[in-house]
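To the team - zinc ion complex, inputs and output below.
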Amino acid sequence: MFANYHTHTARCHHAVGTERQYIEAAIQAGYKVLGFADHGTYIIDNFNYRIRMRPDEVAGYIDTLKALREEYKNDIRIHIGFELEYYPSHFDKTLEFLKQFDYEYLILGQHYIDDGLERTHVMKPGSGDEMLVKYVDTVIAGIKTGKFSYVAHPDVVFFDGDDAFYKTHMTRLCRAAKEEGIPLEINCLGVHEGRCYPNEKFWKIARDVGNSVIIGVDAHNPQILLNRDIVRKCEELSRRFDLFPLRELKFRDPKA
Ligand SMILES: [Zn+2]
Ligand SMILES: [Zn+2]
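Output:
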């Protein structure tokens, strides 16, 4: 792989490894571009930062990456970003807070659809049709902000209901992404952990809609960047559905 834009660090409290360890692993694996998109912070009253960077941890993340970007500039190109949920009531305040930092891009990773409460993960089976619709509505609203450069694991939501229902709603998501020119990510972590995604039903829809796609490692430990097998599986999936993963990502300016 030439580039990966989905890299975490220990700063989100549920990944392991330092920025430097991820960079060294990426160089060893032959990457030319490495984008960090650790789970960003949120400006939400009484928020539980158990799996997120706290606001006071953001400066350390940015400063560390800026220094490493310079140090490793002859070996690899480093980009600085965040993975964020779209929490409508808190999005503006969060972006306003992040404005002071030198970062380049956001990716949209919608794991929760409860506007910042983070109680029920969308991968959790059981909530059915209602959860799917709410997930799709939330992701579309996130896409429409124009702040995100791509949608991480758009197929993260668990759904074992009616195929036609799934198709109807996921087609809405795929069309919104296409209209906004936002790529959809085929996620290596899902492959690695045998999760409910990548979901072939979803990628069939993306093929029919004609979405642009990108492969993301979603690295939560440095070693995974050396795992070629999971990338190969994502490439195979993309070929099977006539999708052609982008080599490089064009950033949307989150501060614009
Ligand atoms: Zn994570
Ligand atoms: Zn991620």
